[in-house]
User: Which sequence fits this backbone?
């Protein structure tokens, strides 16, 4: 089917419009959202099948002759990202049933959620730089809508930080687009691949590349542009924070990977070495920042930052193995991180608070929550045989192969510090006797299957990813090969509309 | 013409940055508007500046025979203006809400400096929400 790559974008948009009509009816709106998310997942899997058969799938919207007009181009990496978006989208939508109240449904929660999913898929699928900008803006608008639905003391200051820094990122992005268009006369990524190599004024091209790096670095929460993330995420409703934590920073990472493999490889001495330093500092500062926090979602937010560092490190080393490691890391991290945020919601429901000081004893009273936490937490810290171990192993091995010994040691050290934070949560939330023993929260509050189900399902995926890692790594190596040798991608796109 | 526009873009960027760095949120909005206009001009200049011939293809030909202005950057700018307008509108509403809740427009004030998430700094200026309160 020729229009297959368009469906993962159009479908959630259609569901979003329908959800507006159902916003007064919580139950039906939820059913519609789940149905939409499940179909979204099926379409994403179909698209993945098409990509596995053909290598690269490209569609020119409106049948314009290439390279004019807008194209969608799907390679292994894009297809994997779309599938993973749909998985998280489904899990979070199921979870939202108990997490989101009438008021938030009335404000259009499900519409914004679906729009966000559509925009994410658009950003992953597009083959045009300006179109990517448009999807980023759609994503921003949807995330703003979800952001102001939360409550809690830090909500508005957190929202202000999130919104302003993201608007600055937009300006960087647009400036870079202007410079790139002026230099090359095209904004199609595949076309840019050839045209960027022919640019005479490489310094100006590097300047544009650095502007883009800053723009995407803000989205990805790279050092030193990460402060907005721990300010904003803990104020969100739990299901929203899980979706954001899983996907939003990763769009930035995806965009960096795409642009700095396909277009900006003319001066890796400057661009990729900068990324190398930034990635190392991101890993370190994220994990150290987490150590100082005592609120569960803040700890997890800082860990997003440190984990993003690993992915960018994989790109910055720029070898096939390192890139494959970065892709495995992306897939593993999205699932694990979204899951941990969902668990934090369960902890809140069972123990009454996100704050480590105010909860305890959940190991005894809620064993399933403990299972749901320990699997993603160990995966995040990199215990074998869970998925995080393999992802870290690939990155560290690539580092040693390229003789970046310091970075390899740093990556291992950050893993160790991650264990420290996870153990802190484990011992405070699960092992410590409940601080309110004998009073209100000692009675076992029942947890909803709507919330527990997605958590355990994602934990199961994490375990399965760890056990059946070999095909995942094989897939990632092919994906990395496509990124490092973009000729098939470029020719598939520029073959044009038929 | 290009040089003139380039200088204007630089000037707008400088003024916008100055306003954005002042730490007062309303000035941030003004700075943002200035810079987004500067970026639009930059895209416009990065296209092709030509004020003599309209981009019309003469009859019987398939391509432009004379240098004409480039229509694509203008389409891009139009998109960017619409999106930028929506963003600034949202930002104004948000800042107004933040001002009403925190009573502050200055990012150096306590409500904007809370880095621990327990709301202790914020509790002084606005009531503590029931959600994060365990008791």
Assistant:
């Amino acid at each position: 089917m020729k229009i297959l790559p368009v469906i993962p974008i159009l479908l959630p948009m259609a569901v979003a419009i329908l959800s507006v009509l159902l916003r007064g009816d919580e139950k039906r709106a939820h059913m519609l959202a789940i149905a939409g998310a499940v179909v979204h997942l099926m379409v994403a899997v179909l698209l993945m099948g098409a990509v596995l058969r053909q290598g690269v799938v490209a569609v020119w919207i409106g049948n314009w002759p290439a390279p004019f007009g807008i194209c969608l181009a799907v390679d292994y990496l894009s297809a994997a990202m779309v599938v993973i978006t749909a998985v998280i989208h489904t899990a979070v939508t199921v979870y939202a049933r108990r997490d989101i109240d009438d008021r938030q449904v009335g404000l259009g929660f499900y519409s914004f959620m679906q729009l966000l999913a559509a925009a994410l898929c658009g950003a992953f699928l597009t083959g045009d730089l300006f179109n990517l900008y448009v999807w980023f803006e759609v994503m921003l608008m949807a995330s703003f809508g979800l952001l102001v639905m939360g409550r809690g003391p830090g909500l508005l200051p957190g929202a202000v930080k999130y919104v302003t820094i993201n608007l600055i990122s937009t300006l960087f992005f647009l400036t870079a687009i202007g410079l790139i268009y002026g230099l090359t006369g095209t904004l199609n990524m595949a076309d840019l691949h050839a045209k960027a190599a022919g640019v005479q004024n490489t310094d100006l091209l590097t300047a544009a590349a650095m502007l883009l790096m800053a723009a995407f670095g803000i989205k990805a929460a790279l050092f030193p542009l990460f402060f907005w993330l721990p300010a904003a995420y803990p104020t969100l409703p739990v299901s929203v924070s899980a979706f954001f934590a899983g996907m939003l920073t990763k769009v930035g990472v995806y965009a960096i990977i795409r642009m700095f493999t396909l277009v900006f490889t003319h001066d890796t001495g400057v661009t990729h070495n900068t990324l190398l330093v930034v990635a190392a500092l991101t890993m370190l500062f994220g994990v150290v920042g987490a150590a100082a926090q005592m609120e569960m979602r803040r700890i997890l937010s800082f860990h997003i930052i440190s984990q993003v560092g690993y992915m960018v490190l994989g790109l910055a080393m720029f070898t096939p193995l390192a890139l494959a490691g970065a892709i495995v890391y992306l897939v593993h991290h999205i699932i694990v991180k979204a899951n941990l945020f969902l668990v934090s919601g369960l902890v809140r429901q069972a123990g009454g608070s996100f704050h480590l000081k105010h909860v305890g004893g959940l190991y005894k009273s809620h064993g399933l929550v403990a299972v749901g936490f320990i699997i993603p937490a160990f995966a995040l810290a990199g215990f074998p045989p869970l998925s995080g171990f393999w992802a870290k192993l690939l990155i560290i091995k690539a580092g040693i192969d390229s003789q970046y010994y310091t970075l390899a040691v740093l990556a291992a050290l950050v893993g160790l510090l991650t264990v420290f934070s996870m153990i802190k949560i484990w011992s405070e939330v699960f092992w410590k006797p409940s601080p309110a023993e004998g009073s209100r929260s000692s009675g076992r509050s029942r947890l909803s299957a709507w919330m527990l189900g997605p958590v355990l399902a994602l934990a199961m995926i994490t375990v399965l990813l760890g056990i059946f890692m070999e095909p995942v790594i094989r897939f990632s190596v092919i994906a990395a090969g496509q990124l490092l040798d973009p000729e098939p991608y470029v020719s598939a796109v520029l073959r044009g509309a038929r | 013409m290009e040089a003139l526009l380039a200088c204007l873009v630089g000037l707008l960027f400088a003024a916008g940055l100055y306003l954005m760095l002042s730490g007062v949120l309303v000035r941030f909005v003004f700075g943002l508007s200035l810079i987004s206009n500067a970026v639009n001009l930059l895209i416009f200049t990065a296209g092709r500046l030509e004020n003599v011939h309209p981009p019309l293809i003469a009859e019987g030909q398939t391509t432009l025979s004379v240098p004409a202005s480039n229509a694509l950057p203008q389409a891009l700018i139009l998109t960017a203006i619409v999106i930028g307008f929506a963003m600034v509108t949202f930002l104004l509403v948000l800042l107004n809400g933040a001002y009403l809740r925190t009573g502050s427009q200055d990012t150096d004030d306590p409500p904007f400096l809370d880095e621990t998430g327990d709301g202790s700094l914020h509790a002084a200026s606005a009531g503590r929400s029931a959600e994060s309160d365990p008791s």
Remarks:
- The first helix of chain A runs from residue 7 to 21.
